Probable tRNA sulfurtransferase
Amino acid sequence: MVVYDTILIRYGELSTKGKNKKDFINRLSKNIQRVLEDCPELQFKNTYDRIYIKLNGVDPFPLTERISKVFGISSFSLTQKVETNIEAIQKACLEIAQDTQVGTFKVVAHRSDKTFEMKSDDINRSVATVILKNTEHKVNVKTPDFKLHVEVRADSTYITSKIYPAAGGYPVGVNGKAMLLLSGGIDSPVAAYYVMKRGVEIEAIHFSSPPYTSNSAKEKVLELARLVSGYQGRIKVHVVPFTDLQLAIYKHCSESYAITIMRRMMVRIAERVALRNHCLALATGESLGQVASQTLESMGCINDVIKLPVIRPVVTFDKLEIIAKSKEIGTYETSILPFEDCCTIFTPKSPVTKPLIRRAEEYEALFNFETLIEECILNTECIVVKPIKEKESYL
């Protein structure tokens, strides 16, 4: 069996970043290290066009799923690192070929080190000849069963037979941080995925209304956060006790405006928590027209109470598109668990779809919501979740 000693990381969009590229690479390397922090044996080396992870005996196969989720990586390979001479290259390629089910193959050499005496085509032919003489494999340059990739560099040569696709995008954190309003539904975890893919780190804020919402509903949200935390290594979740404020809204406001007022209170709280945690924007899973609070008029009325920009990455998606993505990233089955959140327990029969800012302000003037908001923030619980399920840390 072939023993791989290195993981070779190839960059995604950051390869075009010019003067900022070094910062992007350093951020990407830190993000990978965070995702693999339970493997202290690993050693990382950053170069202009690759990151190399020396395994030091660690089994690489269990790491592949985690690495594939790290934004900023276009692809990666498990490789053998050998000396840059043709004998060592032939030997390593033959070992991989002998460990592979009999079929057709192609050798793809890339000679980054132009001082190496053999050109890429010469390497291809030399390696293929050794494999043909010592195995039952046949050459097929158009549709091979497997490819042997030979990357010749000045210091060493890296050889692999498989390229793993990865998440692409930008390294999380290069474009700042946002506070995501995370419910227990399908949409907001998908929004988290798309925000992180553009290089924005997220923290999450969740509104809980015990005893009307159960501890199971809270655990469901923490599990959703854990499932998407693999894309940035960890996520801080702010759990806001919303019961008293929510009851005050339904006591003093018209039922038709209750959802609008509730959302206005939520974004007020989210903005203040965001600013305290150095976030530059809010993010939501809103999809235009999906519910009463997601019409253009409702969004405008709700946004009126905050200054931070709001990122809505799934705003033009229909529900089927969002569901498909949630299944792809593995959050769907958790999202549909039957535990209600605070947005669904007091749903009015006829919520207003075109709320007026003036009318919303009139209702809010009927009670002292500022005191209630400060109490919510004061009693907020902060929990850090990580991709590998373990006991969460409470801050």
Notes: The two ends are 46 Å apart (CA to CA). The mean pLDDT is 92. DSSP finds 13 helices and 16 strands in the chain.
